[in-house]
Amino acid sequence: MSKIVSIHSYRGGTGKSNSTANIAVAVARKGNRVGIIDTDIQSPGIHILFGLDEEQMERTLNDFLWGRCALADAAYDVTSVLKDQASARSRIYLIPSSVKLNDISRVLRERFDVQLLLQGFKELINSLNLDYLFIDTHPGLNQETLISLTTSDIVLFILRPDQQDFQGTAVSVDVARRLKVPKLLLVVNKALTEYNFDDLRQQIEQTYEVPVASIIPESNDMLRLASTGIFCLNYPNHAISQAIEKVSKHIIG
């Protein structure tokens, strides 16, 4: 049965989109058909990690929301990023949001039909025969994010070991519980290697009463890659990649 996985953070700068891309790739490598939708329409960017540029994106999520195409028509097969690190069944499809200033301004000005987006999720899963659909949400809590959380089988919260993140995540977790999301997971990102990860995990799990799927260490290697590719494909044996692998196992169950 297909699952919808929303990746969310209360604040920007947590590495949410990078985490989404890497986790989705880790799940796809295990022989799954995976879709990724960039619903961070105000500040899209996950397409860069998969090597898509503006000239290649003839259709985007925006075109679907404005009735110009079906959502599947805005899906780009980016399975080639896996190269030889996948099974025969593995597939990754990416639905980017437009990076054009006029399109972003229109969304901010006119908003869009959130119910249409939800219907699009279902149609996309059926059309592409997806096992998992990952939703890269906009940081914070707005109408679109709340609706995405409502339809999710799993919500994965990305947070840094930072007091502002801790407080904001508490709000997001409370909202997800009220929406009766079936499964909640936490991922701590950008943790300094000098931290005691076991103590940090225990502290966070006691605070939120939500499992910590993984703690991802801070690394200069991530900064050097500079969003020019998928980290776990470029550094398969790295501590970050091992942490991402743990998250994928939690999602697949």
TrEMBL record:
It comes from Floridaenema aerugineum BLCC-F46. Pfam families: AAA_31. Gene3D superfamilies: P-loop containing nucleotide triphosphate hydrolases (3.40.50.300). Residues 3-169 form the AAA domain. It comes from the Bacteria. Coiled coil: none annotated. PANTHER family: COBYRINIC ACID AC-DIAMIDE SYNTHASE, P-LOOP CONTAINING NUCLEOSIDE TRIPHOSPHATE HYDROLASE. This is MinD/ParA family protein.
